[in-house]
Amino acid sequence: MKRPAAHWQILIALVLATLTALVFRFLEAGAGESSAIAGFVGSVIKGCGFLGDLFMRALKMLIVPLILTSVVSGISSLQGVKGFGRLGAKTAMVYLSTGLAAILMGLFLVNVIRPGLENGAPNPVIRQAFERSAASADDEVTAKVAEAGSRKAGDYLEVFRQMLPENVFQAATDNSQLLGVIVFSILFAAAITRLPEGEMATVQQFFRSANDAMVIVTGWVMALAPLGVYALILPVVHKTGPDLFVNLGKYFATVLAGLFLHLFIVLPCVLKFLFGIHPWEHMRAMRPALLLAFSTASSSGSLPVTMRCVQEGSGVSKRITGFTLPLGSTVNTDGTALYECVAVMFVAQVMGVQLSFAGQFFVVVAALLTSIGVAGIPSASLVAILLILKSSGIPGAETAVVALLAVDRLLDMSRTAVNVFGDSCVAVIVAKTEGETLKV
Ligand code: ASP
C-alpha cells in the first residue's frame, strides 16, 4: 500500500497525539493521582519526552551543515556583487514590510479587544493569576527569566553583535546564534565568486553536491516525522489543561486572531494581488513544513523541510532559497513580531499602564527590531518581550513574563507556523520578481 503524503502523516500523528492525551487526562481524572493508570500515563509521557527529544535533536543536527551548504551554493551562484545586492535589498524590503504589517495588525487587535482590561479598568483577576503563576513556576523558568532580565537597554544592539561572532565554530554550536553562521556563510560565498574561474567552479560544485547530500539526509529524518510529532505533541496537550483558557482566554484569542488574519488574509493577499502568485497552491506545497513548525515550535528546526517544500513544491530555485530561507528563519519572524506587540500591550493593560501614542510607537519599533534577533527556537521571544517591557517602564515585567512563559506553548506553536509561512512567502516573492517560473 502507498504511504499517505507527508502532511497527512504528520496531521494524523497530531490528531492521534491530541486524542491520546485527552483520553489520558480523562482516565487520570477518574482514577486519581496514585493509581496504576497515573503510573502508566507517567511512563508513556516520559517515553514520549525521550522520543520527542531524539527527533528534535535529529532536526537540529541538520541545521548548521544545511545552512552552510545552501547559503554557500545559493549565493556563490548569484552573478557577482550586483546580483547579490539586488536580491539582498528585495529580501530585506519584503522582510520589513511583512513584519511591520504583522505588528500593526497585532496593535490594532489588542487595542480593540483589550484583553487585559475588564470594563475599561485593569483586570485584577489576571494580575492575581500572574502572581500565582510566578509563585508556582519551576526553577528553570524563573532562572531563565532572571537571566533574560539582567540584559540592559543597550541589548537592542545585540542583533548586530550576533552577526559577527568572535568564533564561527562556537556560534555554530548554539542554535540561538545562527545569525553569525549565516553572515559568515554569505561572506565566504561572496569570496568564492572572486576566485579564478576553474577554482570557483570546483568549490561551487563541492558545495552543491554537499547540499544535495544534506537534502537526502533531511528526507531520512522526515521519514520519522509522524512518530516525532506524536511524541512531541502528546505531553504538551496532556499538560495544558482548560484552566489556562479561563483567565487568559481573551489574550489567547487576540494573539490567535492576529496570527490567523496574517496567515490567511494578509500574506495570501500580498502574494495574489501584488505578485500574482497563487496563495493556496503555495500553502498546499508548504503543508509539511507548516505542520512541522507547529509541532516543534522551532523555525530553525523546520528549516530543512521548509527548504524542501519551497524548492520541490513551489518550484523556487536553490539559488534563491539558499539565500532567503536560512536568513529568514532567524531574522524574518512575522508571527513573533505580532506576538511581541500583543504581549507587551496586554501586560501594560493588566498593570494599568496607559501607553501614549509615542509609547505604542516605541513598542512597534522595538518589536520589529527585536524580532530580527529572536532565535528560531521555542519560547525565544519571551526574552525580547521582557526587554521591551522593561524599556517601556512597565512594572511587574518579570512576574508577567514568567506567567506568559508558563502558558506559552500553544501560542509559540502557532506563531512559529506563521514565521515559517512568512519566510516561504518571501522566497516565492523574490523568485517571482527575479523572473523564475514557479509551480504556484
Ligand atoms: N519559536 C519561535 C520560532 O522558532 C520563536 C519565538 O517566537 O519564540 O520561530
Give a description of the structure.
The protein contains 19 helices and two strands. Strands 1-2 form a two-stranded antiparallel ribbon. α2 packs across α13. 46% of the residues are buried. The site of aspartic acid has 16 residues, from α19.
List strands and helices in order, with pairings.
Elements (H helix, E strand, L loop, with lengths): L5 H26 L4 H41 L3 H34 L3 E2 L2 E2 L1 H12 L3 H11 L8 H6 L4 H5 L5 H15 L4 H27 L1 H15 L3 H33 L3 H18 L2 H15 L4 H14 L2 H17 L6 H17 L7 H11 L5 H10 L2 H25 L7
Antiparallel strand pairs: 1-2
Quick structural summary:
By secondary structure, the protein is mainly alpha-helical. The chain has helices at residues 6-31, 36-76, 80-113, 124-135, 139-149, 158-163, 168-172, 178-192, 197-223, 225-239, 243-275, 279-296, 299-313, 318-331, 334-350, 357-373, 381-391, 397-406, 409-433; strands at 117-118, 121-122.
The helix content, as a percent range, equals over 70%
Unreliable stretches, pLDDT < 50, 5 or more residues? none
CATH architecture: Orthogonal Bundle
At the first level of CATH, what is the class? Mainly Alpha
What is the typical, i.e. mean, pLDDT? 90
Provide the spatial order of strands within the biggest beta sheet: 1-2
Question: Helices and strands, in N-to-C order?
Answer: HHHEEHHHHHHHHHHHHHHHH
Rounded to the nearest angstrom, the distance between the terminal CA atoms is 29 Å
Question: CATH superfamily assignment?
Answer: Sodium:dicarboxylate symporter
- The number of helical elements comes to 19
How would you sum up the major sheet? 2 strands, antiparallel
* Dominant shape: globular
Q: What's the domain count? A: 1
Radius of gyration: 22 Å
What structural class results from the helix and strand content? mainly alpha
How big a fraction of the residues is strand? under 5%
CATH third-level topology: Proton glutamate symport protein
Number of E-state strands: 2
Ions, cofactors, ligands: which are bound? aspartic acid
Oligomer: single chain
